[in-house]
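Changelog entry

Holo records now carry the ligand SMILES as an explicit input line rather than a separate metadata file. Below, a converted record for adenosine-5'-triphosphate, shown in the new format.
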Amino acid sequence: MSYLSESREDIQKIADAIAAVLDIEVIIYDNDLVVVATTGGGVHNSIGQKVRGYVIKEAMEKKCVIVNDRPGYHDLCQPCHLCGTCPEQANINCPIILNNQVLGVIGLTAFSESQRESLLRNLPGLQTFLEKISDLVKSKLAEHELVQQLSALVNKLENILDCVNEGLIAVDNNGKVLQYNKTAAKLFEVYYSQSDTTKIEDIIANIPIKEVLISGNGYTDREIPLEIAGKTIYVMSSARTMKKEGKVIGAVISFRDMRDVNKFVYEISSYQGQHSLDEIITSNTIMKHLKNKLRVLSKSSSTVLIQGESGTGKELIARALHFEGTRKEGPFITINCSAIPEALLESELFGYEEGAFTGAKKKGKPGKFELANGGTIFLDEIGDMHLYLQAKLLRVLQEREVERVGGIKPVSIDVRIIAATNRNLEEMVKNKEFREDLFFRLNVIPLFIPPLRERIEDIEPLVEHFLNKYKFVLNKEQIIGFTSQAVNFLKEYNWTGNIRELENAVEYAINMETKVKIEASSLPHRILNYSKNVETGILLNSKILPLAQIEETMIEKALKIYGDSLAGKKNAAAALGIDLSTLYRKLKQKRKNAKAILYKDN
Ligand SMILES: Nc1ncnc2c1ncn2[C@@H]1O[C@H](COP(=O)(O)OP(=O)(O)OP(=O)(O)O)[C@@H](O)[C@H]1O
Ligand SMILES: [Mg+2]
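Structure line, unchanged by the conversion:
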């Protein structure tokens, strides 16, 4: 489409105005010789048609006004098939030039003798007039172009604003909504078809916009509770005023759903890595069974209670449940109920409202439950929670909503709860130290993690795992494993601190070791001394036993530690300070004795 035809309506108005004044036909052509406006009198092509226009072409090429007082007989008319029969009596053609570019031609055309006379009589005046009209057309075109540029800009800006994750609403100085982006529409469940008179208060009741418009001062990052469709949601809002010549003419308010803000804060502040079930190392049957169970449970939202001694991997399991499951994109929020002073735990868990209590930060704060929305909250050391808070927690579990300290309206939450403790909750319930109703609410899916001493077969894969984890960090890449003696000491130990204690022991040993295999002597002293202490302790504290019985017990123990294979027996014999053949003899004797007992019993 040519430049002129885009502004066809304006051009036509100009043509009609000229014709009314001059009583002469006006035809305006674009630079393709297509008629874009015509006053309709006489014989000529209609709008949209292309003309041969030899004279018009000349006016465009020469960029000057051309007068043709004898159409059909002019030199330029010679190639035309209407040469000698042209219905036009005279014409005057003025090019329209914008930025040195010819956009078209305005032609005044006489179709009757009287029009011809008038045209030729007023020729000088008409030429000037046409040049002025050409300027008018140019200014119309420039205006049209500007409007187009502006509307393209507006369109671009709207698209940009719609891409912004924040909701944006612009209001005038009366709070009337001028514009808002898609995020705002989604956030407030309003649509672009709002009427012209919609005020921001109609959409968001408790927005402090009046203060802003009156004072001229905006605000930054204020948390505002909003009532939307009967639900309370919290948004983080900022406002800036728009001013003209010092006067407030409106404001732009931005909003972010606190759930997104919380997620963002969680993502940048608490990246603790994702944890999958593959990170739970085990060769133990009960643990393998537990891992399979976890895989299934991760897909559910039911409450889980993990019980196990300190350091058995309760948190690792809680994380795996979250990161293997359907909520993995949501936050995983941990709260250690024993680490936070009781007085603060309530506000940590449930948050508080602006000015809720003395000492509370002015602005109010969301609690861990709100922060965990859409994800999982891990209530660690739940057994250490005070009875008063147990009652509040019970309410959250029942209602699935939290009430901030000092708050009026509860906030609904979608959170999976995983609790853990190393205390015996059932025992605590009996002793009235833990609420029975809360215990049952938490104990929907109970998981018990056996202590490490009951899964000796996990020691070897775990120490290998920790060796690989630490040797690079500690610049000890040369270490390739453990001597069997070191492993035996590790298997012997009591591990009250379970896997955490084992992990620390391995880290210690890697630090101490200078050879390629970790030797027993590099292990922490408490582990080396343990068996000696235990044994001397047992020997000294127990009653006198027959030597034969002690010998048999030691042989059994050695085989349990070193294994029943030939290599195991060799090591067992070495540890017992006897030859391999002596060990075989003693084992044979033991079997004989056992058979004898069997026959005797029968
Ligand atoms: N099966 C396992 N495989 C690999 N690492 C493990 C395993 N179990 C526990 N760990 C590691 O042992 C350490 C202690 O685990 P975690 O913190 O999960 O135990 P916990 O039961 O929560 O302890 P606490 O009762 O002291 O809070 C962590 O570093 C964890 O990664
Ligand atoms: Mg823990």
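Spot-checked after migration. Residues 279-282, 308, 310-316, 422, 462, 465, 499-500, 503 surround adenosine-5'-triphosphate (ligand 1) (CB under 6 Å). The domain at 544-601 is CATH 1.10.10 (Arc Repressor Mutant, subunit A).
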